[in-house]
Design brief:
Blueprint (H helix, E strand, L loop, with lengths): L10 E4 L1 H8 L6 H12 L4 E5 H13 L3 H10 L6 E4 L3 H13 L5 H12 L4 E3 L12 E3 L4
Amino acid sequence: MGVTTLPTGSRLYLDANVWIYALEGYAAFAAPLAALFARIDAGELNAITSEFTLAEVLVKPFADLNVALQQRYIETLKDRPSLRIVPVTREILISAARLRAQHPTLKMPDALHAATALESGAGVLVSNDTRFVAVPGLQLMKLSD
């Protein structure tokens, strides 16, 4: 499955690595990310990510004292018409624990992302992390093969 084959109106979850690739300029993913975000910005796709994503993506910019990148993440990861930022709720935490118990290869951060996707009704999870393949109810869409 690729960005261009997603039906209009699809609800998809964007994993933390998608934001890192997009905002830190990973050239290998520039074309698929441009296509993905063009469809999201046009309202063709409904994008979701977790508040937890912000904590994940800010670690390296804080460690590197990269204030410009910190601000870019903080400004980008906000609710807007084309993007819904889902809070970490008690229900999501319980769902993440259940997923982690059922799929021991999932680390807790990945379980939180998967649980948020499922609880938010996203059937597609965009990530290059293949551990998500094991999660029932989620279809993994990788940015590269």
